[in-house]
Amino acid sequence: MKKDVLIAVSIGIVIGAFIALIVINLPTLIPNKSISNIPRITPTKPDSNEIKAQMKQLSLVIENPQDAAISKSSTLEVTGIATFSSLIIVDTKDGPKTVKAHEDGKFSVPVDLNEGGNEIFITAYNENGDSSTTTLTAFYTSEKL
User: Fold this and answer.
1) Which fold, 53-140?
2) Which of 1, 56, 81, 141 qualifies as a FRET site for 133, CA 20 to 30 Å off?
């Protein structure tokens, strides 16, 4: 029985040494790939006129409410993001409300809702006079859903 244990330990040491040699020499066995063929990308500084033109392009994204939203409150906050310093007009049956987008483009306008469906027209105007309009409907109910 001692002979079997001695043979098993010897075989384990030989196999372990063989695996250790492979792991140690593995970096030299794998061919070294050259990275000189990889194209290099150099960043370019955008033209200041290009940046100004992009800033003047009009964008309007409504974050809240989503179209066909149901509100349990008679007042709803219309929030979104528009181009910097855009003039935002939120028009409902009760009349228009005007606000200017903040430096980060965000805006928020409280809107009073009537019972039932309320069409809300949100229009953004930039410095060039371009406009973008989004229409959505918000529903108000005082009943428990």
Assistant:
1) Immunoglobulin-like (2.60.40)
2) 141
Closest among 77, 72, 62 to 139, alpha carbons compared: 72
Q: What HEC string does the chain produce? A: CHHHHHHHHHHHHHHHHHHHHHHHHHHHHCCCCCCCCCCCCCCCCCCHHHHHHHHHCCCEEEEECCCCEEECCCEEEEEEEECCCCEEEEEECCEEEEEECCCCCEEEEEEECCCEEEEEEEEEECCCCCEEEEEEEEEECCCCC
Tokens matching residue 33? 């790939």
Instruction: Tell me how crowded residue 51 is: count the other CB atoms within 10 A of its CB.
Output: 11
Q: Which two tokens stand for residue 145?
A: 């859903």
